[in-house]
Design brief:
Elements: H1 2-22, H2 25-55, H3 60-63, H4 70-101
Helix pairs in contact: 1-4, 2-4
Keywords: Membrane, Transmembrane, Transmembrane helix
Transmembrane segments: 30-53, 65-85
Protein name: Transposase
């Protein structure tokens, strides 16, 4: 499982970069999915924390129940991949800009 997580965190952002170079509309798809994931991820976090505060059960173990939610895990995983994909875009765009200015 560790191998899958590490391999995925390298391979998926690279694939996203290649796909966005081949199919420009995929940028809109990736950005829209990130926006939706961010909304879901943030709202799940906020409602989980709100419930804990409302129930007055402010213990460290209660919030960890949120980590068992598969939607929370999927949206968080996508946001992680998207963040790495955007870093790749910045690196390659800066490299291209420097090469064009010389």
């Amino acid at each position: 499982m560790k191998f899958l997580i590490i391999f995925g965190s390298i391979f998926v952002p690279l694939c996203m970069y290649v796909v966005q170079n081949k199919w420009l509309k995929s940028r809109l798809l990736f950005n829209g999915a990130a926006l939706l994931s961010g909304l879901i991820f943030g709202n799940l976090s906020a409602t989980g924390i709100y419930k804990i505060i409302q129930d007055k059960t402010v213990f460290m173990t209660n919030i960890h129940g949120l980590f068992l939610n598969p939607i929370f895990l999927l949206t968080g995983a996508y946001l992680g991949m998207y963040f790495l994909y955007r870093l790749l875009l910045l690196i390659f765009e800066n490299d291209l800009n420097q090469q064009n200015s010389n």
